Amino acid sequence: MRIVLVEGDITEQRVDAIVNAANSSLLGGGGVDGAIHRRGGPAILNECRRLRAARYGRGLPTGQAVATTAGDLPARWVIHTVGPVWSATEDRSPLLRDCYANSLRVATELGAATVAFPLISAGIYGWPVEDAVAQALSVLDAADPAGVTEARLVLYGRSAFEAAQRLRPGPPSRPGPGIS
C-alpha cells in the first residue's frame, strides 16, 4: 500500500473512501465531521441515523469504524471512526491506532482501493499533531490490507503537513488539494 501525504481539504479527495473523524453520535459535529456532513449532504446523515437506530443506539465506540454512503462527496463511501480525546495522564494511543486499523478493515470489506484519512483526534480532541502523525503512520506503514493500494493522510494546514513530512522520510509527498 502506498502512503501519500497531502496538504488539503479531505472533502475534495477523489478516492473510494473518505474517513471521517466522527463524534460518537454519528450525527455530525464540528471540524472534519461537520465538513464531511455539510459537503456530503443529507444522505450521509440519513444513513447515520439508521445506524444509530439499528446498531449504535449509544453511539459508535471510540476506535471502531462503520461505513455509509458518501452522498455528494467525490468518493463512494465515508468510513466513520471516533478518535479518543487526548489525555496527558492516560495513554490512549492504542485507541487512536485502532481508528486507522479498523477503518482500513472496513475499507477492505467495502472493496475500496484508495482511502483518504484526516489526522484523527488532532483537532478539537487535542491530540498533539506530531504524535497524531506518528500514530497514523505507525499503523499505515505496518498495514497490508487486501485491495487497498493507496492511503492518503490529508493534513489540514501547512504546519500539520510540514510535521508529517518531518516524520515521513522518503520521496516527497504532494502538497495542495491532492485530487487525482
From TrEMBL:
Its EC number is 3.1.1.106. The lineage of its organism: Bacteria, Bacillati, Actinomycetota, Actinomycetes, Micromonosporales. Residues 1-180 form the Macro domain. It is an enzyme of class 3 (hydrolase). SUPFAM superfamilies: Macro domain-like. Keywords: Hydrolase. The keyword Hydrolase applies. Signal peptide: none annotated. It comes from Plantactinospora siamensis. The keyword Electron transport does not apply. One of its GO terms (molecular function) is O-acetyl-ADP-ribose deacetylase activity. InterPro entries: Macro_dom, Macro_dom-like. SMART domains: A1pp (SM00506). CDD domains: Macro_OAADPr_deacetylase. This is O-acetyl-ADP-ribose deacetylase.
